[in-house]
Amino acid sequence: MAAPSTRGRPDQEQQTGAGPAEPHDRSRVEVRRSARRSRTVSAYREGDRTVVLIPARMSHAEEQRWVAQMLEKLAAQEKRRVLGDDALMARARDLSAAYLGGRAQPVQVRWVTNQNSRWGSCTPAEGTIRLSHRLQGMPEYVLDYVLLHELAHLLVPDHGPAFWALLEAYPRTERARGYLEGVVSAARLPHIPGARSEGPGVDPAGSCG
C-alpha cells in the first residue's frame, strides 16, 4: 500500500459505506471506494465529515486500519496549521505590510464558529476581522488570501474594481479562489452511502464578506 495522502482534489469514486468517527474525532466518517485506485489512500475534511478514499479491493479490516491512520494524520496536520488569535493578528499585519502598504490596520482578528455561509467577514468601522473555523487546516496560501480579502475590505468596503485591484499584488489570489470554489462545488455534490475526494478542510458555503 502506498503512503497515504491528505492532499489533492476530488475524483470520481463510488460511495460504498460510512462509519462512525473515531472517539477523538467528532466528525462523521465516510469511506469511499474506487476501482480506479489501486494503491493510494487519501482523506480530506468536508464540513463536519471526514472523507477517506480507498481502493475498491481493500478488505474491511484494512479499511478500518487506514481510516484510523488517516484521521490521526489529518488531526496532526490541522494541529500544526491552526493559528491562535494572536498569531492571526500578527499574520494579518505582515500581510498588510507586504501587499497593502501597511494601510490596513485591524484592531482585532479572530476565529469564529458561527460563519457557515462565508469564509471571512469584517466590520470596517470597528476594524475587526472574523475568519470561519472551516479554514483551519486549509493550505496557508488560502488562509492568507482570505485574510488579505478581509484586510482589503478595511480599505474598500465593496467588491468593486478598486477592491480587486488591491488583491492583484498577492500572487496566489486566483489559485486560492479556485481552491475555495472547488471546496464549495465538492460539498454540493450528491452523497450516496459511502465516500469521495482528497484535500483538507471542505464545506459547502462560501465566499468572503
Automatic annotation (TrEMBL):
InterPro entries: UTP_pyrophosphatase-like, YgjP-like_metallopeptidase. Keywords: Hydrolase. CDD domains: M48_yhfN_like. It is an enzyme of class 3 (hydrolase). GO terms for molecular function: hydrolase activity. PANTHER family: UNCHARACTERIZED PROTEIN YGJP, UTP PYROPHOSPHATASE. This is M48 family metallopeptidase.
